[in-house]
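Problem: given the chain below (101 residues), write out its structure.
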Amino acid sequence: MPLKPTNKEEEYFAREEALKLRKLALQQQQQMSQEERKQLQQLHWMHCPKCGMEMKTILLNEVEVDKCFSCGGIYLDEGELEKVSGRSSHFFQAMEETFRE
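Solution.
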């Protein structure tokens, strides 16, 4: 009968996998030329990863978030999740209202 891994083991392997993926992404980025990166950014900049439509930046309780008004998705840039998690419940009420719209 196989043993189920503990949460600490799962967290360790998840961290290791994330580090491998980060290193791979950095290698790919270094191998790309500046022009290739510019073209890739222009192709995808502010487009929803879910439906591909254009997203708009909205201010939600002093945090700028990217919202797709087509599918309703909300996307956070690096560091914004930390800002959000330190907010009071007013932020989450505002998020809920935004999703309803």
